[in-house]
Design goal:
heterodimer; A: mainly alpha; flat; B: about 270 residues; mainly alpha; 9 helices; disordered C terminus
Chain lengths: ~300, ~270
């Protein structure tokens, strides 16, 4: 049964990636007017224009272009950057570690904040603790990254001087970007942990555990949290994607040399092949992360494989 | 009910400001050179920006940008999304299958990444911002409407309507849409918050409205360069933005409680097939 689920799920993910490739391919054709002219500027030499047109395959019919694009992708050939003239694959690999580092740090921070906050809110339901914790969470989802980042820079870097303003140089430079990126995730997670834990707290086995005289802490952690965390794991998997897109703005704010800031730089340089490749890279990793989350979930919880939604 | 009125009032007040911005005596582009980067004073209490323009005036005009985009994007994507979702779920078959696949593909782009790429490629400007954010937003409504109709179309009153020969269009309009409107309204409230953040985010990246037009996002962006000397340039638009987004999120939460909509896992990229 798991094998069947595995195969269907992998095939679906593959179809989705194919759809994503189609959309990303179309991006270049959405450039208003002549993309070559937009990229090179109107005063460019006609020979240069023609060369770029040929390099991008824009002189071919659409289906031939798409075929070439797909064939390139199959060999992990993402094209060449118009700005730095380097293979885009190299650029991405160079930038990837910084984004992964930031993402992992933000995720750790989010979990460290969300788990205690969520438990506190659920256990002390409808008290000042609950309202306080959920109030913090509401603020957390409502503060945009591009405002939280500058405010943290203002307080933590400019006024207090504890952290560098921007760039990537050691652990201290990671703190402010990770806080910025992790806050929204922490807020969503703590709300989710609260609501799943509240559902679990009313289950019969919780009453049994209490009835047999287990201390409160054991009941909540061993019986409650264990069951409540399953949906949370799925949510973490899904939110990793949101983290990736949040990284675009956060990295730009902090001049963090990751994939997210690469997209924005490429847009401003009209380096569209890089925009395409980066968007493709981020979305594909999102699909793959989702796939892993689903498979892990199905492996842990047999109900999923048999079609019942937990 | 009263719990809804507070956030709704805040939003309506801002919407009113946005609506009236062109007729109010504001001078968002008036340059007052001696006042460059001046902080708040009794007669201009939010201070001036790096070009000597009054921040308070720009804040109110920026509200217009935010609310125009939010209203346009939410109405376009709500209408298109819920129509597609409803028709797909009601008709079923290959039409629905295609819809599900298309939704899956759009959900594969995390957050506003697709909007950033679209706005970046199509070029800056408020109309492109509306297009880019609508392309991203319709999916949520389509998915929600589809899921709702799937669970509603087996109800007795729908079967009865089919049995007496009611036309599908009439069934969708009179027997299905009213039933699924509550969750869609809740979703639209959260959706508005997302679009306001999205527009400001695009403008922050320089992909939204172009100078000298004001947007809260571009005001924050301009302010980050003068943070040490003029922090008020960043703080004022940020607080306005956060206040509006907070009110929209609170409204969504309270509407959900009030309309008794069971909370759905939001933004899941799983196939919504049952």
């Amino acid at each position: 049964m798991f094998v069947r689920f595995f195969i269907t799920r992998v095939l679906t993910a593959f179809a989705v990636v194919l759809g994503v490739v189609c959309l990303v391919f179309m991006l270049l054709h959405l450039v208003p007017g002549d993309p070559v002219e937009v990229m090179l500027g109107e005063s460019a030499h006609p020979a240069d224009k023609e060369a770029l047109q040929r390099a991008l395959g824009l002189d071919q019919p659409l289906h031939v272009q798409f075929g070439q694009y797909l064939a390139g992708l199959c060999q992990f050939d993402l094209g060449t950057s118009l700005y730095s003239k380097r293979p885009i694959r190299e650029l991405l690999l160079e930038r990837l570690p910084a984004t992964v580092e930031l993402g992992v740090a933000a995720l750790l921070f989010a979990l460290l904040l969300a788990v205690p906050l969520g438990i506190l809110a659920a256990v002390k339901k409808e008290t000042a603790w609950d309202f306080g914790a959920m109030g913090i969470a509401l603020f957390g989802v409502s503060i945009p990254n591009f405002w939280m980042g500058p405010m943290l820079i203002l307080v933590g870097a400019l006024w207090l001087g504890w952290f560098p303003v921007s760039g990537r140089d050691g652990v201290s430079s990671l703190v402010l970007p990770a806080l910025t990126l992790g806050t929204a995730l922490a807020s969503i997670l703590s709300r989710m942990i609260r609501s799943t834990l509240l559902e679990v707290l009313n289950e019969d086995f919780m009453r049994t555990a209490r009835g047999k005289g287990l201390p409160d802490r054991t009941v909540i952690v061993r019986h409650g949290l264990r069951n409540a965390l399953l949906p949370v794991i799925t949510l973490v998997g899904l939110q990793l994607g949101a983290l990736l897109s949040g990284a675009v703005i956060t990295e730009t704010v902090f001049s963090w040399p990751g994939i997210g800031s690469l997209v924005v730089e490429a847009i401003h340089r009209r380096d569209y092949p890089v925009v395409q490749a980066t968007v493709l890279c981020i979305s594909t990793s999102y699909v793959v992360l989702n796939l892993f989350t689903d498979l892990a979930y199905a492996w842990v919880d047999p109900r999923v494989r048999f079609g019942a939604r937990p | 009910m009263r719990r809804i009125l507070v956030p709704l009032g805040i939003i309506l007040l801002w919407a009113l400001v946005a609506l009236l911005a062109p007729v109010l005596p504001l001078s968002p582009n008036a340059i007052d050179l001696p006042q460059i980067l001046a902080s708040g004073s009794p007669d201009e209490w939010l201070g001036y920006d790096d070009l000597g323009r009054p921040i308070f005036d720009r804040l109110l005009v920026g509200a217009r940008t935010s609310f125009l985009v939010a209203f346009a994007v939410v109405s376009v994507s709500l209408i298109i999304g819920s129509l597609l979702g409803t028709v797909g779920a009601y008709v079923g078959g290959w039409l629905d299958l295609i819809l599900v696949r298309v939704i899956d593909v759009f959900l594969a782009f995390p957050g506003i990444l697709l909007a950033i790429a679209l706005a970046g490629v199509m070029g800056p400007g408020i109309d492109n911002v509306v297009i880019a954010l609508s392309v991203v937003s319709w999916v949520g409504y389509a998915r929600l409407a589809r899921a709702q109709v799937l669970s509603m179309k087996e109800r007795d009153h729908v079967h009865a309507a089919v049995a007496i020969g009611t036309s599908p269009l009439y069934i969708i309009a009179r027997h299905l849409l009213p039933l699924i409107s509550a969750p869609l309204i809740v979703e639209a409230s959260f959706g508005m918050a997302n679009v306001v953040i999205g527009e400001a985010g695009l403008s922050f990246l320089g992909l939204g409205v172009q100078p000298p037009a004001a947007s809260w996002g571009s005001m924050i962006r301009d302010g980050t360069r003068y943070m040490l000397v003029a922090p008020h340039m960043v703080i004022a638009p940020g607080l306005a933005l956060m206040g509006v987004v907070l009110a929209m999120n609170v409204l969504g939460d309270r509407l959900r409680d009030w309309l008794d909509v069971k909370s759905q896992p939001r933004k899941t990229a799983k196939s919504p097939l049952p």
